[in-house]
Amino acid sequence: MKLAFLTQVAAAALTCSAWTVSAQENTGTPGAPDATTTLDGRYLPNPPTPFGGEIGLSAKDSKPYWPPQVVPPKGAPNILLIMTDDAGYGVAGTFGGVIPTPALDRVAQMGLRYTQFHSTALCSPTRAALITGRNHHSTGFGVISEQATGYPGYDSVLGVDNATIGNILKQNGYSTSWFGKNHNTPSFQYSSAGPFDQWPSGMGFDYFYGFMGGDSNQWEPYLFQDHTQIFPWVGKPGYNLITDEADNAINYIKQLNAAAPDKPFFVYYVPGATHAPHHPTPEWIEKFKGKFDMGWNAMRDQIFANQKLLGVIPQNTQLTPWPDDLPKWDALDADSKKLFARQAEVFAAYVAYSDNEIGRVIQAVDDMGKLDNTLVIYIEGDNGTSAEGSTLGTPSEVITIEGLQVPVADQLKFYDAWGSDQTYPHMSVAWSWAFDTPFKWTKQVASHFGGTRQGMAMAWPARIKDAGGIRSQFHHIIDIVPTILDATGIPAPAMVNGVAQKPIEGVSMAYTWNKANADAPSTRRTQYFEMFGNRGIYNDGWYACTTPPAAPWLMGTAPMPEVVNGYKWELYNLNEDYSQANDLAQSNPDKLHQLQELFLLEAAKYNVFPLDNSILERLMTPRPSATAGRKLFTYSGVVSGVPGGNAPNILNKSYTITAEIEIPATGADGMLATTGGRFGGFGLYVLKQKPVFLYNFVDIERFRWEGPDTLPPGKHTIEFDFTSDSHNMGSGGTGILKVDGKEVANQKIPHTVPALMPWDETFDVGVDTRTGVDDKDYQVPFAFTGTINKLTVQLN
Questions:
Q1: CA distance 763 to 681
Q2: Which of 181, 354, 643, 744 is an S-S bond match for 190, by CB 3.0 to 4.6 Å?
Q3: Is 122 buried (19+), middle (13-18) or exposed (0-12) by CB count in 10 A?
Q4: Which segments constitute the Sulfatase N-terminal domain (predicted)?
Q5: Where is the domain boundary, 521, 554, 589?
Q6: Which residues pair with 569 in a beta bridge?
Q7: pTM to 2 decimals?
């Protein structure tokens, strides 16, 4: 007896379903192991394929049937999407910069350079827009996750209605992988408890190898493989994440090619360079020794001349004025010039080193014979060059993020170590401004192209034939996803996992690939910009924007105007004024008013409201982590790698840390509890059998409490109690170290870390798995050799 009627019933049910798809392409014999199908793609995932065989009482009188394998449309290319970090338009040699970028050159020579391509002005907002094809506020990333607030445009949660390009391509038959920086998982969800729907795996990426957050130490990175934190630098002298990422990506692509050579891949490759810390290898630093002795003003002139020579800016472009509040190179003393030149040497080395490793990945694809049918998109920077190093630069970015500076004389002590694991360095904002030539401003400033104009090259040798061409259409980071979908023949889905999707807000750039369309009008006619209250609006060649009321290198410490009405506005005709050099606001108030009204409409449409120009304050905003609202934290034994969002936050408050321990007869040393490391944090530990509490004030000062007596064998209670003077940002206080209820050390300190512990460090109990808070006292992992029965942190 046959049971085929069961198949008929199932098929009838699917025919009546709203999920029915059409226009599928099938290959091979239906039901055979090699049968394939493409999807309609509008509804993901595809509904189950009806069983097409026959089922009898036994296998002998039945016919098997395999569901077809899902594959992309015929001819769909591999996708290699590359983006570097914190690099403005004048950085890469490909766009006139003084730093050679041969990998970017290669892509440009195979394909096209784009001279009016834009970011959002900040890291994770650009990245959210890049992988979703939607504006950053539409995805919840109006700012970085560390500054998230409870509004739809600012909560740093992509949401189930914002399916990423990874999810779309994966469900259409691509292998998907992500290497490098992930700044799109909410900072309050980094822990092993998840949830993981906002991790790369939940965004549609089969494989992730990289770090979490805005940046990481490249010598000792906060590194993950999929959901697991790993420590690859142990026992590996000379390790650097920039090379490790390239090695990992190349190996992964090779494995894919060996296992399924006909399956297309989507590789999202986003190294941490050139975001601080600037951590190139020594041999790359040596290549740039003496290359920046001419200073930032002469370098800026040189970049501007190069840009005109290459044709990546119009010949009538004006070089915007040097700002009054940044010094000119000739006015500096000899020590300042020596330090600042060193900062630029290390930055340039980091740019070139990263481009070299990117070139290795591109070459690996070529070596497999797959480059001809690979769409390579290489974006130099997710925003303009960073001003977060302050006017002086810094041996540790953690210092300037807190709104502090290190004098030149003190920085020169790090001259030879600049870029090594002993530093977390950044450069003077004067270099950053110059690397954004010919524009004004820097990263964080969404109103001006110094913050948003990115050099970008795109190649697909099988399709793009105008090799070496230049395109000047106005485009935005949200236009990458529709371009990829256009190239693959995959539609933007209307529904994913049962959830209706927001429309893709970008437009395809594929029309620019044909030489006949080299001068075609831009299909992007309107685009808004907003970051920290600074605003801009583009429409058909005109651009209106606010004047930044405070420089980004002040890190939010300057008073700000009323966010809606307290800003001055500027107006530019970009058809005649490429660099925003001539403000027409006074001479054309009607056009300005028209664009201001358009901004309000676009802002309302894309979740930009409420506007907020606070910076440091938003770092302190409570967020919905698994520990939100808790004041008592209890641990036992060894616990390592707890991210800051899930750990007790001692900043700007009183607290008590209590460790109930047991010392064996042979004595014991080691870490009891720590947050942070070499560039800021605290540690409660036993050293030479004496209790110690050490507070590392962002590697500028270290305050130490130490008991005078060794701990005899047996059970003990070690307690550190800190009483804050005012609970204001950075306020000092009094710390008391106790052993078995008896005070053994008492000290008042003038200040504490005001806003943020090092973001690439973790909270550990019984061990220190990152860098140590004092390298003179111990070396990681410094595991406690006694027993921790109980450790509590009480926040007050």
A1: 10
A2: 643
A3: buried
A4: 77-490
A5: 521
A6: 546
A7: 0.95
pLDDT in tens, 565-601: 899 999 999 999 999 999 999 999 999 999 999 999 9
Three-state secondary structure readout of 275-329: CCCCCCCHHHHHHCCCCCCCCHHHHHHHHHHHHHHHCCCCCCCCCCCCCCCCCCH
CATH number of the domain enclosing 783: 2.60.120.200
- Paired tokens of 42: 């509008």
How far is the C-alpha of 346 from the C-alpha of 427, rounded, in Å?
9
Q: What is the rounded CA–CA span in Å between residue 672 and residue 682? A: 11
Which of 490, 521, 552 corresponds to the end of one domain? Answer: 521
Contact 429, 390 (CB under 8 A): yes
Output the six-digit token pair for 513: 């690939």
CB 42 within 8 A of CB 494: yes
Per-residue pLDDT, averaged over 611-636, amounts to 90
- For the cut 80, the answer to whether the pLDDT of residue 114 exceeds it is yes
- Structure-block tokens of residue 189: 């969800």
Q: Which residue has the tokens 């990874």?
A: 166
Phi-psi region of 737 (alpha: psi -120 to 50; beta: other; left: phi over 0): beta
* Structural tokens at position 702: 């270290």
* CA–CA distance, 305 with 413 (Å, rounded to integer): 36
Here the CATH number for the domain that contains residue 476 is: 3.40.720.10
CA distance 255 to 235: 26
Task: For residue 245, give the nearest of 170, 187, 178 by alpha carbon.
Answer: 178
